[in-house]
Write a structure and sequence with these properties.
It is a single chain. The protein is an alpha/beta fold. It is built from ten helices and ten strands. Strands 6-7-8-3-9-10 form a six-stranded mixed sheet, sandwiched between helices. Strands 2-1-4-5 form a four-stranded antiparallel sheet, covered by helices on one side. It is globular, with a radius of gyration of 18 Å.
Amino acid sequence: MSTESSPPALELRHLSFRYPNGRVALDDVSFSIQTGERVAVVGPSGAGKSTLLMHLNGLLPAPAITDSSRVQVFVQSVPVAKAQLRSIRRQVGFLFQDPDDQLFCPTVRDDVAFGPLNLQLSTSEVKERVTRSLAAVGLPDYAARNPSQLSTGERKRVCLAGVLACEPSILVLDEPTSNLDPRARRQLGQILNQYTSTQIVATHDLDFVLDHCQRVLVIDGGKLQVDGPVDRVLANATLMDRHGLDVPWRLRQTSS
């Protein structure tokens, strides 16, 4: 964990965003995340969670902004703007909810190597990163496999290997456990728990939040409604109900 004098790993300053159809997805959202924190973003469907995540490495807005006075997102004090996108995306690794949005090569090796190759690393360094990342996600022998022939859990782990191969300092994860069976969910959680990097996770899986995160942001109607410790926020039945969420069963048992 960083000291208080260090700049935040991520900072949002009054972030608002409206889609071309006029729908307001984010409305004056501000918060900061310190280096090494694991933070969950929760809320009902359509609350703005994925939209928020896509601002963290410049996937939104499109086209990327060039006017520095309009920048509302910062990575270690560097503005997420067009001129800095290459540097920002080296630091912020993004795991999409749907593996189909991330896997497009004929082999696992090619998919995992895609990011490092775009970083213009040497062939030997790319090979080392592919090997190391596949081992880290528990798929050391999958390099020659076709991603389309893997299970959903395996494909998500290949996606994570591709992100880890770029060695980002921040992991941004959009619904990482969706469509996973209990074993695959547990395996993914164990992998993520091994990393001390800053992590921000948008998810409906509140048990995963309990297991993996220290802090939770509740987003509803595009606004940041609550920011606090996981146990305290998720155990507040009145607050959770107000924002279309249920207290996790584990916390209900604890409080009964």
